[in-house]
Amino acid sequence: VQLQASGGGLVQAGGSLRLSCAASGRSFSRVAMGWFRQAPGKEREFVTAINWSGDSAYYSDSVRGRFTISRDNAKNTVYLQMNSLKAEDTAIYYCAAGSGLTYSRLSRYYDYWGQGTLVTVSS
């Protein structure tokens, strides 16, 4: 079972990036998926999560209105569209697969984790 995150890079403040997380080894169409991030010198924090069907999502206050999570269960892939990026969004972004149909902001709820993709926002 593997989660492969991609799409990170260097972008100027105000710009956009789209992250992808492709799952392999099993289907994740019946579990919630989430994105977390860890900035240098800080603890990992919750960013957003989406339920199994994709019709409900939850966002942290710091990204609500700027980031959008979505999923394509046919492709076993979850996406994170990031707009209006700020310097404080700089972090390694991790995708994770949950243990049930609905989402949680707690990292212990997630059973599988990707390797992370680095997002750097220059001010």
Helix/strand class: mainly beta
- The helicity comes to under 10%
Overall body shape: globular
Flag low-confidence runs: none
User: Beta-strand level of the residues, as a percent range?
Assistant: over 45%
Backbone CA Rg: 13 Å
What is the H/E order? EEEEEEEEEEE
Overview of this protein structure:
Strands 2, 4, 5, 6, 9, 10 and 11 form a seven-stranded mixed β-sheet that branches. This protein starts with a strand and ends with a strand. A hairpin with a 4-residue loop joins strand 7 and strand 8. The protein is built from no helices and eleven strands. It has strands at 2-6, 9-12, 17-24, 33-38, 45-50, 57-59, 67-72, 77-82, 91-98, 110-113, 117-122. The model has no long low-confidence stretch (mean pLDDT 96). With 123 residues, the protein is mainly β.
Main features:
123 residues; mainly beta; seven-stranded mixed beta sheet; 11 strands; 0% helix; 50% strand
